Structure formats: structure tokens, C-alpha cells
Amino acid sequence: VGPPVLLPITKYIPSTFGLQEILTMTLSAQLITTPIMLYYFQSLSLIAPISNVFVPPLIPISMLFSVLALLLSFVPMMGMCTVLTGTITGLIIDTMIWSTELFSNIPMASIKIESLSTTTALLCTYSFILALYVKQIYKPPNNTVEKSVSLALLK
Q1: CA–CA separation, 87 vs 100, rounded Å?
Q2: What span, in angstroms and rounded, lies between the C-alpha atoms of 117 and 35?
Q3: Can you tell me whether residue 47 is helix, strand or coil?
Q4: What DSSP state is assigned to residue 75?
């Protein structure tokens, strides 16, 4: 499921700070992995799209400071810089863990599904994805000329 298919859903989200792109990618990943999550964890996260707006942007920053700390650790007499970059990395990771715990403790953050077969999970998820594709392909005409052409072709 790619961004063009999810654009009708996410087009109302402002693109400020890349929020629209982050939410589109989050929804894409969540849709594709839903059957696996339902099968293994017997729960469906309702809060994941919202929490994933906050956590993923921190990952590249923490990776940057981790690599920087590693590289500085090989340079003699750069111990203080290594400790500083390592501390920044730790703070970023602590923030990611804290926000994940915060969102997971929200009431009704996930729905527990006791018994769901793999077939049912796959069928539900991929039916939804198919519906998005069909809606994207068969858009209603926007203007009267297109409408009249469409009606003429249908007759």
C-alpha cells in the first residue's frame, strides 16, 4: 500500500514538519503488518499512527549521535566529546521509550482480539487494502464534460 492510495485519507493532515508523509508511511506499514500483529499479539493498536508521528523522527538523530560517539571513541583525547554525544544519544533513546510507554498507557490504546484465525486477519486486512485501491482507480469524474463522457460510455 503506497502513499498514492492513502493520500485520500491523509490529504487533510498538514505537511508541516513532514507530518503527512510520516502518517502515510505509518499507515502503510501498519496496514501491511496488521495480519501478523493480529496473529502473534492478538491485539490491534489504535494509537500507533499517532505515536509513530513522534517516535520515528528521533531514530535517525539517535543513530547519528551513536555513530558520532563511536567514531569519537577512537580519537585520543576526545573522551569528553564521546561522553557528551553518548549522553545525548541516551537522552534521545530515553525520550523514545518514555513516549512509547506514555502512548501505550492511554486507555483503549489497543483492542484485544481473543481468537482470530490467520485467514480472517488476512482477509479483513487485504479486503480493506483492495477497497482503497478500487476507490483510487474508480474515482468519480470531476467536471461535467467527464461526467457526460462517462455516462455516454456506460450506455
Answers
A1: 20
A2: 9
A3: coil
A4: S
Beta-bridge partners for 128? none
For the chain, what's the residue count? 155
Ranked by mean pLDDT, which of 22-26, 28-32, 94-98, 120-124 comes out on top?
94-98
Residue 79 CB-density burial (10 A; 0-12 exposed, 13-18 middle, 19+ buried)? exposed
pTM of the model: 0.62
What 3-state class would DSSP assign to 113? Answer: coil
The DSSP secondary-structure symbol of 139 reads P
pLDDT digits (tens, 9 = 90+) for 11-40: 777 777 777 777 777 787 887 787 778 778
Return the residue matching grid coordinates 476507490: 135
Rounded CA separation 117/7 (Å): 30
Name the percent of the chain lying above pLDDT 70. 79
Instruction: State residue 2's pLDDT score.
Output: 59
Q: Which residues pair with 112 in a beta bridge?
A: 43
